[in-house]
């Protein structure tokens, strides 16, 4: 090896330092089946990861805790890593012996697991949780048991629902506290009471982290003495109060809520209902399929308790919602439920597009459970949104941790982006009133990797040429409105609002002749990377051609100029969060 594997921090592990390290990182990614370039249908692109993670250009991210990743990169088998593998082995043995009635089939699964574990122990590079997930997938597909824990989760939810309806629960949540006489204003008192209610509910919801179905009862709530715990312990909820703000009705927050266990989900929904009452909007992310006791997106279909508890929630089954579609749903529905797309604790590489976009569009992440503490708090990487993690440890002590988003992370709010679109629409409206022809020019901006700056120069040069050649026109050049930090999702959201305004007379798509002319005007030959390119090369322009044809159906006077529309449609949907083009689907080329 030409490099030292004993890293002091995961932030020291970056691409481009050493080819041997790059090879090791690629080995790690491929063995864990996480490499996007090899399997883009299952794994998220780096651009999609950056919806959730604040990553520098060469920064490497592993979906596990820091200590786990550092051990996996070491040579040999550290004792702590072996212990983690043994935990996964015992979990799989328990699953097989308890839920596979066919003894011969169960024995086959265990023999298979031994082979897999021996192979991994000989060269430990696979994340233990990923190994277990692989074995569970084999178990489910081979045995025909699609969800062994469905009955367990149902029992947990049933007992929790009874507790929530009890007088004891109502008394603990709604008992008036002492010490409020010093409050000078009613709205201050109301705010303090609202925050106290949320704190009580969050603390109660974590009690289920250590409960069995048999211990879900009113007496357990009384023994927990939530109000005594609040009075005796430190004030952990300061970050929560600050993030939510004093008046949710005038400054509502979008909150992504990640529960961790059936049963506890019933109490989580009480937290959600309180947040909704205060004016906030909530997106709850459930598991796509079986992950032991964690609630799944589909549990509601078979559990009357969940059907009642989720009353009023809007369930979104689509796993690849566009930014526009997601924002439209979130604006219409105060409480939205989605799937995170996985059967794992937290793995951004495998999260659905809808989940990644929901993370990006929310303001605060409420993540419940000690498992998420390892994945969200106990890592050196930062996230693009403020994260609040809360849970109870094995000793039943309540914890709440806040991981703030870095100051450099800037969120382009829906209001800001829509405001930019409205400014352009106002200019278009004024131009139409003056009798000028409004032309929208669609061209390659970022679909040629590493050529975004050059692309803006190409499109701007040609639009300036058109402005000199054409009289009484108002030409919109997207390159002139490019703002550093905006990704393709932000820009497509803005431009679609402009494009559907009804004020465009001529929609012109960039041709190869346009590109040649631009380089001629700049006094340069066409570089090889630009040879043969036109708007059909851009997946962003492809989406815009769909929009143009849709707009033309309601505004037949719209003139579309450029390559034949059929040449665009050989391409897939534009890459998630990407300026860079996605590959042409060879089956449809």
How would you describe this structure to a colleague?
- This protein is of the alpha/beta class and 589 residues long.
- It has 3 domains: 10-143, no CATH class; 150-403, Rossmann fold, CATH 3.40.50.10880; 414-568, no CATH class.
- It is 47% helix and 10% strand.
- It has 23 helices and 13 strands.
- The strands form 3 sheets. A 7-stranded mixed sheet has the order 4-5-3-2-6-8-9, with helices on both faces. A 4-stranded parallel sheet has the order 11-10-12-13, with helices on both faces.
- α2 packs across α16 (353-361), α4 runs parallel beside α6 (128-143) and α19 packs across α21 (512-521).
- The longest helix has 22 residues, at 186-207.
- The radius of gyration is 27 Å and the shape is globular.
- The two termini are 44 Å apart.
Characterize this entry briefly:
With 589 residues, this protein is α/β, with parallel strands linked by helices.
Question: In terms of topology, how is this protein built?
Answer:
Elements: H1 19-31, H2 46-52, E1 53-54, H3 66-73, H4 79-99, H5 103-122, H6 128-143, H7 150-164, H8 167-174, H9 186-207, H10 218-224, H11 226-232, H12 238-244, E2 254-258, H13 264-277, E3 281-286, H14 304-309, E4 314-315, H15 323-332, E5 335-339, H16 353-361, E6 364-368, H17 370-377, E7 382-383, E8 386-392, E9 398-403, H18 414-433, E10 437-442, H19 452-469, E11 473-476, H20 488-499, E12 506-509, H21 512-521, H22 539-554, E13 559-561, H23 565-568
Parallel strand pairs: 2-3, 2-6, 3-5, 4-5, 6-8, 10-11, 10-12, 12-13
Antiparallel strand pairs: 1-7, 8-9
Helix pairs in contact: 2-16, 4-5, 4-6, 5-6, 7-13, 9-13, 18-20, 19-21, 20-22
């Amino acid at each position: 090896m030409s490099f030292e594997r004993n890293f002091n921090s995961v932030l020291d592990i970056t691409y481009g330092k050493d080819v041997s390290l790059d090879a090791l990182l690629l080995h790690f990614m491929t063995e864990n089946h996480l490499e996007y370039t090899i399997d883009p249908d299952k794994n998220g692109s780096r651009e999609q990861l950056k919806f959730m993670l604040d990553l520098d250009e060469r920064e490497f991210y592993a979906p596990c805790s820091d200590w786990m990743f550092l051990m996996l990169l070491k040579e040999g088998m550290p004792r702590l890593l072996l212990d983690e593998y043994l935990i996964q082995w015992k979990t799989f043995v328990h699953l097989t012996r308890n839920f596979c009635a066919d003894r011969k089939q169960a024995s086959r699964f265990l023999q298979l697991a031994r082979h897999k574990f021996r192979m991994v122990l000989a060269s430990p590079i696979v994340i233990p949780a990923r190994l277990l997930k692989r074995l569970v997938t084999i178990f489910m597909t081979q045995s025909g048991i699609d969800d062994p824990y469905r009955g367990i989760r149902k029992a947990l939810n049933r007992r929790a629902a009874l507790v929530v309806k009890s007088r004891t629960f109502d008394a603990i949540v709604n008992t008036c506290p002492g010490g409020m006489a010093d409050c000078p204003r009613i709205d201050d008192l109301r705010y303090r009471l609202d925050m106290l209610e949320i704190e009580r509910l969050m603390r109660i919801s974590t009690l289920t982290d250590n409960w069995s179905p048999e211990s879900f009862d009113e007496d357990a709530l009384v023994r927990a003495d939530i109000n005594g715990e609040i009075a005796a312990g430190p004030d952990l909820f300061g970050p929560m109060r600050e993030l939510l703000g004093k008046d949710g009705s005038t400054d509502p927050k979008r909150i992504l809520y990640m529960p961790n266990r059936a049963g506890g989900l019933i109490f989580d929904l009480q937290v959600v209902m309180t947040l909704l009452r205060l004016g906030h909007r909530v997106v709850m992310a459930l598991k796509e399929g079986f992950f032991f006791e964690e609630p799944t997106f589909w549990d509601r279909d078979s559990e009357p308790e969940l059907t009642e508890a989720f009353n009023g929630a809007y369930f979104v089954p689509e796993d690849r919602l566009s930014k526009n579609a997601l924002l439209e749903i979130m604006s219409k529905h105060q409480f939205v439920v989605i799937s995170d797309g996985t059967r794992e604790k937290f793995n951004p590489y495998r999260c659905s597009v809808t989940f990644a976009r929901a993370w990006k569009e929310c303001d605060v992440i409420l993540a419940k459970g000690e498992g998420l503490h390892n994945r969200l708090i106990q890592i050196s990487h930062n996230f693009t949104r403020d994260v609040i993690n809360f849970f109870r440890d094995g000793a039943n002590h309540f914890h709440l941790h806040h991981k703030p988003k870095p100051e450099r992370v800037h969120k382009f709010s829906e209001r800001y982006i829509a405001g930019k679109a409205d400014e352009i629409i106002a200019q278009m409206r004024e131009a139409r009133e003056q009798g000028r022809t409004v032309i929208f020019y669609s061209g390659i901006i970022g679909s040629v990797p590493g050529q975004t700056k050059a692309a803006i120069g190409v499109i701007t040069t040609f639009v300036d040429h058109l402005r000199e050649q054409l009289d009484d026109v108002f030409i919109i050049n997207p390159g002139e409105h490019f703002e550093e930090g905006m990704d393709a999702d932000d820009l497509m959201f803005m431009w679609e609002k402009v494009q559907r305004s009804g004020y465009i007379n001529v929609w012109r798509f960039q041709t190869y002749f346009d590109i040649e002319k631009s380089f001629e005007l700049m006094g340069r030959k066409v570089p090889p990377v630009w040879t043969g390119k036109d708007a059909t090369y851009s997946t962003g322009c492809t989406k815009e051609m769909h929009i143009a044809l849709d707009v033309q159906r309601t505004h037949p006077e719209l003139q579309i100029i450029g390559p034949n529309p059929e040449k665009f449609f050989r391409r897939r949907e534009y890459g998630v969060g990407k300026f860079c083009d996605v590959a042409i689907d060879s089956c449809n080329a």
